[in-house]
Design a protein that fits this description.
By secondary structure, this protein is an alpha/beta fold. It is built from 15 helices and 13 strands. Helix 14 links the parallel strand 12 and strand 13.
Length: about 375
């Protein structure tokens, strides 16, 4: 009998713990650390960290460190030494840029260059995967397994988990059913569930596309504000509707609806980025100030779904060259790029211009 959770399940549990503010322990052969997500940190847990009496690091991505003028000696991240007695407002102020303009002086910040940063890097990767702000308190422990056992905390084998977190989770088709749409009466909705317990993804199949010929396809990232609310800050809703309409007119197509809201940073962080845009930053600058890359989406998901549905060739409805590159890298033959230029309005002109200038979109 095997009831013990496997690595995928352990990581899913760790994401849930971090979102709830519960720490996790990362261990390797000769080192272990306690990891707390700064976004869900509480004042009591911060006091508990201080009471351990060891030098604690605040791990930040290079983008957030650049905003704070903190030196990222490790290249992709900075290890800021947590001052003794630092309070919750100070710690969370380093992670969240909401008040950067009203309270710009947060330093001077001392960052470490000695020692290994692999566990810090893994902590940030894990926290990102939980859709939280990429900032972590990293506390060295002498006996990580013993500390975890005495505090009922989850333990992760860092050496095994690090490559696993970079591997795309497998997808299983859950169910398919007919769903007549305004754009196409002959439509089916396919539900795909990742093995790692993350968000499900959907495929909308229009008609009965021939698997032997290139199918009209679109990889559409979920946009709650644009797709559902009709937001004018982006072109997502019009793109979704135009893609389905074109597939309906042609009588065949497949639209992959990928739950990667806000370019993969989640709806809460997307709203944080919107708030920063209200302060005068463009969409890329806002993501960087939050500590994220320009685009955190993983388009390998789309290729995996297409293959599971039997497609190997597509006419891709997109303005984004990165999608074409990723499909081809995943052995999906893109025989044609079909432009999808819709939805421009006075509220999103600057946003679309930034996508074209900084993200290479063909607009």
């Amino acid at each position: 009998m095997t009831l013990r959770p496997d690595l995928t399940e352990v990581l899913a549990r760790a994401r849930a713990d971090l979102r709830m503010g519960v720490p996790v322990v990362l261990c390797v052969a000769r080192a272990s650390v306690l990891v707390l997500a700064v976004e869900t940190l509480t004042a009591q847990r911060l006091r508990d960290v201080h009471s351990l009496g060891v030098q604690t690091d605040l791990a930040l991505t290079r983008w957030r460190a650049e905003t704070l003028k903190a030196r990222a000696y490790d290249g992709d991240l900075a290890r800021v030494a947590l001052p003794k007695g630092a309070d919750l407002a100070w710690v969370q102020g380093l992670a969240d840029p909401a008040n950067d303009l009203s309270a710009p002086m947060k330093g001077p910040l001392q960052t470490r260059r000695d020692g290994d940063a692999d566990l810090h890097r893994l902590a940030l990767t894990l926290i990102k995967s939980a859709r939280l702000l990429p900032a972590a308190l990293v506390v060295p422990l002498e006996d990580g397994a013993g500390f975890a056992a005495s505090h009922d905390l989850g333990v992760i084998d860092a050496a095994v988990a690090a490559p696993h977190l970079l591997t795309l989770s497998g997808l299983e088709r859950v169910i398919s059913a007919r769903v007549p749409l305004r754009a196409a009466k002959d439509a089916r909705l396919h539900i795909f569930r990742p093995e790692d317990g993350s968000d499900e993804h959907y495929a909308i199949e229009i008609g009965r596309p021939d698997r032997a010929t290139p199918v009209l396809a679109r990889l559409h990232s979920a946009c709650f504000t644009g797709d559902l609310l009709g937001s004018l800050k982006c072109d997502c809703g019009p793109q979704l509707n135009a893609a389905l309409a074109q597939m309906g007119q042609e009588g065949a197509g497949v639209l992959l609806y990928l739950n990667q809201e806000g370019r993969g940073i989640g709806l809460a962080n997307k709203m944080r980025a919107y708030s920063l845009q209200d302060q005068g930053f463009d969409t890329v600058e806002a993501n960087h100030r939050l500590g994220f890359e320009d685009d955190e989406r993983d388009f390998r998901l789309g290729a995996q779904i297409l293959r599971k549905m039997g497609f190997s060739q597509v006419r891709l409805l997109t303005n984004n060259p990165r999608k074409i590159e990723m499909m081809r890298a995943c052995d999906i033959n893109v025989t044609e790029r079909v432009p999808l230029r819709v939805g421009e309005n006075p509220f999103n002109e600057a946003y679309l211009a930034t996508k074209a200038k900084k993200s290479g979109h063909l607009l």
